[in-house]
Amino acid sequence: MSEIIIIGGGAAGMMAAVFAAKKGNHVQVFEKNEKLGKKLYITGKGRCNLTNACETEELFNAVCRNPKFLYSAFYSFNSQDVMDFFEKEAGIPLKTERGNRVFPRSDHSSDIIRGLQNLMKKYGVTVHLNTEVESLIASEERVRGIRIKEGKKEILCDQIIVATGGLSYPSTGSTGDGYRFAKSCGMKVSPCSPSLVPLVTKEDYIPQMQGLSLKNVSLTIFRGNKKVYQDFGEMMFTHYGVTGPMILSASAYIGDQTEKGELKAELDLKPALSPEQLDQRLLREFEGNKNKQLKNVIGVLFPASLTPVFLELCGSSPDKKIHDISREERSRFIHLMKHFPFTITGRGEFKEAIITRGGVSVKEVNPHTMESRKVQGLYFIGEVLDLDAVTGGFNLQIAWSTAYLAAQAAGNERE
Q1: Residue 413, pLDDT above cutoff 50
Q2: How many CB atoms lie within 10 A of CB 265?
């Protein structure tokens, strides 16, 4: 039986604890917060989108950085394995929603946390809350234990699994401790930045639409004339920019681009219709409302808060009668519907970010075991690694899969 210490009691840490203890190891979890799963609790707006019920090959397409590193992890413990684990072992009924997003049937993330806690208790995991790990103890390229911040107490062990998360939502305890531990052992850490985060925009008219949500729209982002990103889905306007599932996923791909300067973006508000079809639609609306004011007719096509902004950008008087609208004006309406513009000037901060981009370099971690290539008995799992994916349950899948591999490897008898 090996003595295994897990630093961090979030999603990855709890999952690793369950599997490591299930093998008969003595497992201790050290969590600096007052409770386990603090970030997991707010995941998916409190509903916990715990994985994505797609084929394993599709998981790789959702990973933005270093997808090949996850080959062993995803194939060893895929999304179906995750669903089976929570339903059969943790006893939590699940459901699958649009986009293959998987949630607990109760819509309560607390059920996922409770299920993991129950399994940890079942397999004899010792949990230390309000206990911050200050540093690792290592010698001769091998871990020996940890040093607790309060009282500088030293606790020896055979293996350490670092599951400290990244820098996103620092209020949940994600303050980069794992990066410090890695650096102290001579490991490289890639530069970190917020990801899956709202985007900041330039135009004054964006805040005018604060709170407005749009569904089934298409987004295209350009650097000069070059298209750098395109997607379809849901978004929302805020007091400083744009957010929503489609925008958050865009931030994962264009995050580095925002540091090089402004990006131009366009929304296709009616992607299912061609310009010709839109023209026919407008003509039908105009034909039956010739004596009405433009603001009262164009509002049929858009939500109320979008209409004044739309008319302002078109340069048309809202009080103009429909029978006075020229073909040129109609053409401007159609072009704006297909190319609604705004400028991206930056992205939100870590306190708004769902995940961290960057982290412990995967080049220095064995992809089959999650063990450090530099320090024997030291493992890194979850968000602390330089791995990130789009929204839809994929980042938690990374946490579960890497935790599973580390737990299987830790405690094994070494030759």
Answers
A1: no
A2: 22
- Please give the tally of structural domains in the chain: 2
3 state DSSP class of 150 = helix
What span, in angstroms and rounded, lies between the C-alpha atoms of 409 and 386?
A: 20
Residue 139: what are its φ and ψ, rounded to 5°?
Answer: -155, 150
Residues 226 and 110 in one domain: no
CATH number of the domain to which 405 belongs: 3.50.50.60
- State both tokens at 397: 């899948």
The reply to whether 26 and 109 lie within a common domain is: yes
Place of tokens 């929204």: 391
Together in a domain, 160 and 202: no
Q: Are 128 and 31 in contact (CB under 8 A)?
A: yes
Q: Do 107 and 218 belong to one domain?
A: no
In-domain check, residue 363? yes
* Separation of first and last alpha carbons in the chain: 15
Average pLDDT over residues 275-288: 89
- Angle, CA of 75, 79 and 81, to the nearest 5°: 75
178 neighbors 165 (Cβ within 8 angstroms): yes
Apex 247 CA angle, 245 and 249, nearest 5: 70
11 three-state secondary structure: helix
The residue range of the domain holding 249 is 198-348
Any idea how long the chain is? Answer: 415
Same domain, 141 and 261: no
CA distance 244 to 86: 28
390 found inside a domain: yes
State how beta strands 340-347 and 94-97 pair: unpaired
pLDDT value at 63 more than 50: yes
Based on the fold, state whether residues 10 and 149 are members of the same structural domain.
yes
Whether 247 and 231 have beta carbons less than 8 Å apart is answered as: no
C-alpha triplet 412, 414, 415: angle, nearest 5°: 145
**3-state SS of the chain: helix, strand, coil percent to 5?**
35, 30, 35
Same domain, 146 and 254: no
Q: What is the pLDDT of residue 415?
A: 33
pLDDT digits (tens, 9 = 90+) for 300-318: 777 888 989 998 999 888 8
Is 414 inside any structural domain?
A: no
Q: What is the pLDDT of residue 26?
A: 97
